[in-house]
Design brief:
This protein is mainly α. It is built from 14 helices and 11 strands. A hairpin with a 4-residue loop joins β6 and β7. The chain starts with a helix and ends with a helix.
Length: 382
């Protein structure tokens, strides 16, 4: 069976080389130019570089030993931050008004683990720190001490709409007004990002800024707002209503991915998998508590958050759960590729298909292929 899963990886590598490597050194009518080649998201006819997608694409590139390309992806994001003052959602000129969830520290860590290039790490560290400061200052600050998605840059959309785009959860029932919410995934990432910066400083200088560890611990403490003891799960906190959202989402597993909780809490969280598990993996929201016919929700499966949930389960040594879920999803991806010759942006995890109600599903090699390759390795199938 592992051989069967592995057979798709050379196909992905060939297609990336032949179809998805872009070189845009100069600005065009639609794109901001970047200095290095990059892998586009793989969405049909979209040549852009996406910052969120890059983390997942790099999971695949690194495991396929396309290390220089993975490094170039990160360097391009740093270039855009130098150029614009922050890392935009994409180098599409129509998407320069907002950012995306902060993953630069993770991308730098992944490349550095493979290359051991301290000079590159030294050069990128100021960019990682700058991204962290971007997310921990206005307009992302809130009265709780936690952080939010919020963009005040002018654009074609309202501030509410732009801020929702920044979260990436477009069309989801997860948020009414994302500006009034402390998202569990964003704040969990910032908890770990502070620690990653500290680790980089220790690696380069032999010591780190203790204020980063204090910041990390403060975020962890404040995230108790998002914890529901009765449910044994994390939710988004709506500070305008002073209560947690009732909707369970895969974002609630982000504290596992960032390794923020102890083993006891991790096992309690794993008991909530029952609300998400489906024949084709995990659904993006739980099967209960969602509005009827809501897009971006059950029964849809979204590869980035599925990978993060599986990685968290494995890090807490819950391999049986991870294997059962991961094998179901890998099999679904292979089955649909054999039928359509494509990976897809979304999968219907309940019906095990690429027919997804409520969304315009598109062929997409990017984050789906990267997550696929990472899960194959995660489960020891490579």
């Amino acid at each position: 069976m592992s051989r069967h899963f592995h057979d798709l990886i050379p196909v992905i590598k060939r297609r990336i080389k032949e179809e998805y490597i872009k070189e845009i050194p100069q600005d065009t009518d639609e794109l901001v130019g970047v200095p290095y080649p990059y892998v586009s998201s793989g969405r049909t006819q979209e040549p852009a570089l996406y910052s969120w997608d890059t983390f997942f694409i790099n999971q695949g590139l690194i495991r396929m030993r396309m290390i220089d390309l993975a490094r170039h992806m990160v360097d391009n994001l740093a270039y855009l931050q130098h150029h614009l003052g922050f890392i935009p959602y994409s180098n599409q000129k129509s998407m320069l008004s907002h950012s995306a969830p902060p993953m630069l520290a993770w991308m730098v860590r992944d490349v550095y683990r493979i290359t051991g290039d301290k000079e590159w790490l030294r050069r990128l560290l100021p960019d990682v720190i700058k991204e962290f400061h971007f997310w921990t200052n206005k307009p992302h600050t809130t009265i709780t001490g936690l952080y939010r998605y919020a963009s005040t840059r002018p654009g074609l959309l309202s501030e509410k709409e732009i801020s929702l785009f920044e979260s990436g959860w477009i069309g989801s029932p997860r948020f009414d007004d994302v500006r009034q919410v402390n998202p569990i995934d964003l704040n969990s990432l910032l908890y770990r990002n502070a620690r990653l910066i500290y680790d980089f400083q220790v690696e380069l200088e032999g010591k780190g800024d203790d204020r980063l560890l204090e910041k990390s611990e403060l975020i962890k403490k404040l995230l108790e707002l998002c914890w529901e003891e009765g449910d044994g799960f994390y939710f988004d906190y709506d500070f305008s209503k002073k209560r947690n959202s009732p909707l369970k989402t895969l974002a609630g597993f982000m504290p596992l991915f960032v390794e923020m909780v102890d083993q006891g809490r991790a096992r309690r969280m794993a008991q909530q998998l029952k609300w998400f598990v489906a024949p084709g993996g995990l659904t993006i929201t739980g099967s209960a508590g969602r509005p009827p016919s809501a897009p971006w929700s059950h029964p849809l499966c979204y590869a980035p958050y599925l990978y993060m949930a599986l990685k968290g389960l494995c890090d807490y040594e819950m391999m049986e759960d991870a294997a059962d879920i991961g094998l179901n999803w890998l099999t679904l991806v292979v089955e649909q590729y054999e039928k359509t010759d494509e990976c897809w942006e979304w999968y219907n995890a309940v019906e095990r298909s690429a027919v997804c109600p409520g969304v315009e599903n598109r062929a997409m090699l990017g984050w789906t292929a990267g997550a696929y390759i990472a899960v194959v390795e995660l489960l020891g199938l490579d």
